[in-house]
Amino acid sequence: RENATNRLWVAIRVWAPAVLFVLLLASVNATAAQRSQTVENIPPRLHFAPVGTSPDQLVAAITNAAEDQGWRIIEADPGELTAILVRRTHEAVVTIGYDDLNFWIDYKDSKNLNYDAKERKRRTKGQPRGEIKAPRIHPNYNIWVAELADLIVLRTQNIPKSSDVLSPELIADELEKLDKLRQRGVLTQGEFDQRKEKLLAR
Predict the structure, then answer these.
(1) Which pTM does this prediction carry?
(2) 139 burial class (0-12, 13-18, 19+ CB within 10 angstroms)?
(3) For 76-92, what is each residue's pLDDT tens digit?
């Protein structure tokens, strides 16, 4: 019994540090995982700017929305703006794309936000075995971008309508665009009817 007890204590002394190290490493990894999420870009989303809105008006509305959230436009090209947000030692850079109907926001760069383009995550049930790559970043990034997207929608909706009478050709063109969105399921029948009514009332 004495020999068995001695062997037990020796085993504990040998293996205890290794076990503690493994548990500590698991805890650190779990904490790091909680501090990062999959990067959530904003896919094409309707901005509902009034019919007849000029590109300059649309850019101004997007710029105002970004600046209200603390973003600064650092580049401006046709159909695309680049914005940067600085919070203490953290920086996020995004590309804001836009066209006549939609806008979208994509990750471009960051500093001190735990960005990891090679982070891997397990596949969900039903997917092939193995792992897939999923860029990850600090959760605050996704919050900032979601807030920016919501404010862009609000600002573009409030763009003053043009007092000019729209030509029949322009109205027909806009109706065709709306109908395509309805057929693709982007707009519901109710949303289509509402926008069609406003368009024909001008």
Answers:
(1) 0.64
(2) middle
(3) 999 999 999 999 899 99
